[in-house]
Amino acid sequence: AQSVTQPDIHITVSEGASLELRCNYSYGATPYLFWYVQSPGQGLQLLLKYFSGDTLVQGIKGFEAEFKRSQSSFNLRKPSVHWSDAAEYFCAVGAPNDYKLSFGAGTTVTVRA
Amino acid sequence: DVKVTQSSRYLVKRTGEKVFLECVQDMDHENMFWYRQDPGLGLRLIYFSYDVKMKEKGDIPEGYSVSREKKERFSLILESASTNQTSMYLCASSFVSNYGYTFGSGTRLTVV
What is the strand order of the sheet B73-78 is part of? Predict the structure, then answer.
């Protein structure tokens, strides 16, 4: 079964600074990978997804993620954060022939002025 | 705009009550899911359904049941609510091809 680890529970970043959130997965083959964002009191919104092909994936809100098979990682990045990026971010992994996604525990991002 | 709608944003129930959480999607998705979200634990799968009247247990099904009588509706049932079921409950749906979920806004349930 697949699993996901998000090593950072909480990250604080200054507005305008870059952001990188780490995600490591465990799966025997090439997984389906996702990043979701959850604003306070809301459900989860899909930021981006990777199935195959180009390992650098562009998403919404200016986010991108890079799949690195050798490191079993799918880290999320944003060059310049905005105060509205303060939220909780979840990495998820799925298998091509399985309905279910496994989620990491999440990383909370705080943006300071 | 496509959506997953959860009937209640906030619920307060008493210990021992039978609780129904409703979820409706308008995207003709085959799959529907119920997760609970707790701080530090992320999302944990309770039950999912891949077709009408079909259901499978997730990772933490104890104390819960589900019902899917129509494709668009998936209900989570707490047979006898307990305080350890106080949590945020998230419903999601997807196509069978697993190209990602669409989530509802969540129901925050408090059992007192």
Answer: B4-6, B19-25, B73-78, B64-70
